[in-house]
Amino acid sequence: MSKSAIVFNMEYKTPKNKSVGLSKWISYASQKQKADSSSIDEYNLLKDFALYSNKETYLTEDDETFLWTSNGDILKKDALAKVKDMSNKGLFWRGFISFPSDFALEHGLVTKIDFYSLTNNIMPSLIVDMGLDINNVEWLCALHRDTPSHPHIHFCIYEKIPTKRIGQYPKSVIYNCKSNIANYLIDNRKFYELRDQTFTNITGSISKNELNKIRSQRLFSDKYRKELNKMLLNFYDTLPKNGRLQYNSKNMIMYKKDLDSIIEYILLHDSVKYDYAKYLRLLETHQKELNDLYGQSDSNKNRKYYNDQLNRLYAKIGNEILQNYKRYQAMSFMDREKEFLKKHIQELDFKSRSDYVKDDTKKNIAKDLYKICTIAGLNNNQMKKVFQRWLKKSKYDYDVDSLIMSVSSLDCEMSIKEYYDALKKLGYDSTRYNKLKNKNFYRELNYKRFINQAVNHLMYELDQEEKQIISEMQYELDGDYIK
Fold first, then answer.
1. Shortest CA distance to 8 belongs to which of 129, 91, 105, 111?
2. Would you report the helix, strand and coil content of the chain in percent, each value rounded to 5?
């Protein structure tokens, strides 16, 4: 990637009144005729891609979300209110990052959220390189599309409490920022590498709270994970327990629509969506070439090549999802519970009735809790913490070490009925427990693996499609050359 395609400019301003200066920048950046006003909180790649192909702008009259911060959309009025009450003293920095439109599209900068993701990954490093305290800095951005050949990001950086008297910065700041942008755009999966380097640079001077904010800007967001988990759980609940489950099998006909929705959701993930969009464009190009070569045959009218190739990709990802279901079904009940407890027992809020009079009753519950902790594979310290929380919430007066010693046993086998009876005495009836289990069981089990598998399948299909198109183009070129 040539860094010369990335235009970066930044200057410092020393206004008489910093609040007024920032207000002017906010008003400029938020001009409706210039700025992209779509929200970065909700989007659909295919819809946006279709819009991008036919329009030179995303401007809408309904939304007013011209600006964003590291936390997402911010309304113009809220941004103005925020700077209005700040100190009038001090300086601020403003600048822009610009790309040729074809370069931006080629490197995945299509929707507004793509530009937002870029800034979230380069701004922390930029701020640190400038010698600023990241805990004392705010930044704002806006995407302008009024120059179709060069979409560009306007940004503004300022200190919450003025400390800097000189706004100059070394030339290395520009070089480092352009390098970070280039690295990010080469492959968005390098986001992890860039983020880790950022953490290394700033850990020494950043508060734990602020560091967690930056860490929360991860590729696999909680919102995405929870939605994918929900879709998977709902889908798995509808599948038959027996019969052949393959993407293109007859048994799957009535479930295929739901499975396709999950596959599409995976393909629209940040780490996959650009390659998916590229793949769709390649298929479209190839189908068009077939139409030009062979005319409107029945197969071309029905877009057979396009649909067959897309079906092949969906089948690979879909069969991975179905295989995971089969593996899950093959596990015994207690094996599944063991897997769940290993990951989530510390999240369970165990609490028993406080009106039990007999010590034997309480100790019997403690024996069951010991078995559950053993099934979860807890060590002595981990088990002690679980018991301490349970005793405190249940208002039982026991020495935790003595209690654990008195209920410890080599026999920790439990039947399904015994397991659910024990949970009920610990505050989890079957409804409450299953709700929690369904919410969490697939969290670690599925989503990253599915997405990584989808990336691998997509990379293979992309490679094959590109080779096919290059081969056909070369054949056509050679044919013209011979003539």
1. 129
2. 65, 10, 30
**Euclidean distance between the first and final Cα of the chain, in Å?**
37
390-to-342, 395, 397 alpha-carbon distances in Å? 18, 8, 11
- Residue 140: closest CA among 237, 70, 81, 194: 70
Nearest-angstrom CA–CA distance, 216 and 72: 12
Cβ-Cβ contacts under 8 Å for 444 (sequence gap 6 or more): 343
> What are the tokens at 255?
């479930």
Question: Any long-range contacts for 461-468 (C-beta under 8 Å, 24+ apart)?
Answer: 461/279, 461/309, 461/312, 461/313, 462/275, 462/278, 462/279, 462/282, 465/279, 465/282, 465/283, 465/286, 465/309, 466/282, 468/286
Burial of 47 (0-12, 13-18, 19+ CB in 10 A): exposed
Q: Is residue 77 over pLDDT 50?
A: yes
Q: What proportion of the chain, given as a percentage, has pLDDT over 90?
A: 23
Residue 55 has pLDDT above 50, yes or no: no
What stretches of 313-402 adopt beta strand conformation (E)?
Answer: none
Strand partners for 155: 95, 141
pLDDT at 139 over 70: yes
Closest CA to 407 of 371, 382, 359: 371
CA distance 241 to 196: 44
Q: For residue range 186-238, what is the model confidence (pLDDT) as tens digits?
A: 655 444 344 344 334 433 333 334 333 333 333 345 567 777 777 887 888 88
Name the residue ranges covered by the structural domains of the chain.
3-215, 222-332+449-482, 349-427
Check: pTM over 0.70? Answer yes or no. Answer: no
Those residues whose C-beta lies under 8 Å from the C-beta of residue 449, and which sit 6 or more positions away, are: none
Identity of the residue numbered 181: I
Phi, psi of 67 (to 5 degrees): -110, 155
Nearest to 185 by CA among 458, 455, 1, 452: 1
Distance, C-alpha 256 to centroid of its chain? 25
Residue 238 one-letter amino acid: T
